[in-house]
Amino acid sequence: xxxxxxxxxxxxxxxxxxxxxxxxxxxxxxxxxxxxxxxxxxxxxxxxxxxxxxxxxxxxxxxxxxxxxxxxxxxxxxxxxxxxxxxxxxxxxxxxxxxxxxxxxxxxxxxxxxxxxxxxxxxxxxxxxxxxxxxxxxxxxxxxxxxxxxxxxxxxxxxxxxxxxxxxxxxxxxxxxxxxxxxxxxxxxxxxxxxxxxxxxxxxxxxxxxxxxxxxxxxxxxxxxxxxxxxxxxxxxxxxxxxxxxxxxxxxxxxxxxxxxxxxxxxxxxxxxxxxxxxxxxxxxxxxxxxxxxxxxxxxxxxxxxxxxxxxxxxxxxxxxxxxxxxxxxxxxxxxxxxxxxxxxxxxxxxxxxxxxxxxxxxxxxxxxxxxxxxxxxxxxxxxxxxxxxxxxxxxxxxxxxxxxxxxxxxxxxxxxxxxxxxxxxxxxxxxxxxxxxxxxxxxxxxxxxxxxxxxxxxxxxxxxxxxxxxxxxxxxxxxxxxxxxxxxxxxxxxxxxxxxxxxxxxxxxxxxxxxxxxxxxxxxxxxxxxxxxxxxxxxxxxxxxxxxxxxxxxxxxxxxxxxxxxx
Length: 568
What we know:
Elements (H helix, E strand, L loop, with lengths): L10 E7 L18 H8 L2 E7 L4 H10 L25 H7 L3 E7 L17 E5 L11 E4 L2 E4 L4 H15 L5 E6 L11 H7 L15 H27 L6 E7 L21 H4 E2 L1 E4 L8 E8 L3 H8 L16 H4 L11 E5 L2 E5 L3 E3 L5 E3 L15 H21 L8 E3 L6 E5 L4 E3 L3 E2 L9 E2 L7 E8 L3 E10 L8 E6 L2 E6 L8 E2 L13 E2 L2 E10 L2 E11 L7 E9 L1
Parallel strand pairs: 1-7, 1-8, 2-11, 3-4, 3-7, 16-21
Antiparallel strand pairs: 2-9, 2-10, 4-5, 5-6, 8-10, 12-13, 13-14, 14-15, 17-29, 18-21, 19-20, 21-28, 22-27, 22-29, 23-24, 23-28, 25-26
Helix pairs in contact: 4-6, 5-6
């Protein structure tokens, strides 16, 4: 279908939630919460019964943005550089931008922090949110807007939605692509008090993993989903008020299975698993007047399919330089006559893999399940269907061999620094290596900081590639007690260096515990201060950027969160 057949270029709003399970919706059958706006979105368009994503965050983002399995694009981890999508991959926003769309992303990026991995380097004209895999504080948090550090306003999901509503209003006369990757219900389990009060004593549904359930965590997650639902309702109302509903395609999905054992339709597994419960997600697509309301698609589909599907719906005839793994799903709900193949969808994470087709699942142990009669994966049927079992094992092994060939065992990509087209450069604690006494605040690198910096033998290093000569203003986000002031810092790379002294105290005050509804595993945040270290000139080339103290007169240097270099 051409764009002229659809009355011009349609707007697209793609909503992605973080760690929400398939079962965290009332339309899925979960009576412990109410999601009227998301339920209405499902009923107003097409709902996919068997839609699959990756077991964890960044691989799903890579797949929906590229139309290719995540291991083909260099994504092998969720932190410390392994979440980055290779720069020779073409992302969905880049195609829409080239076709005249206004593009924006608001929320959790999780596909690379430093430009050109940054969303502003991947086709997004406007970005507000954070680039890490998780964030340590959801109320008035430190965020960024197009690379510049800013302070969020209120609860982060409400704030992101406000930005989305403003973007829709500002671009009502232009075709737009709005990517809204919400960061909840990912931990920390923070949600406004009004939602938590409704759920703190809520009775939950029983399920196969009830003995392993953390009920406080589950209640907090469902409260966060109800907040998501309210915000989706606000956004849809703004689209309606702008008169754009009939020219806007709206999608909703999750990035992996639930981040805890809770009710999930009796499926096996949770986040991180390649079983049904770890990778099955809702997918709702609404396009008023173009997609018939109430359609359910039972064909197997995947996040890799969104790239070709959205371009097709927008009437964009895009020819990829690299082969896409995804398929255009639009014939399945536009009722076009098409011979649909019995296809396979491959899932992989952490040396675990599974394979699905329209009827069967081959799990990580190469056990075969018939999902038509046993969606909960209770009965192994390998012996009952030997030919299918053999065929699926062969296909799965081929995928594993492709993965091994395309995913390098060593990541040779440095962190880019000083791109001439981007003013701001961030080097967070997440991406650094600590030496000596310095310790990370949590085993979870995302949103962590460094502490126990006590000696001139201690240092922090980043493997960087300076992309162009330049001079930069250097700032450090830190805390330091009054009685520990006076350390002299040196930042250097090759022959270029800069020195400065820690003169202003910033009290190390942990924040977030008062908003946490259940105890967290990751780091708390601090109210970080900002010190100007000075100016440094760097020259094009690769090497090690080192930050160390050359004088520690009072036994401690600082707690360190972030280094920024702003091009002068």
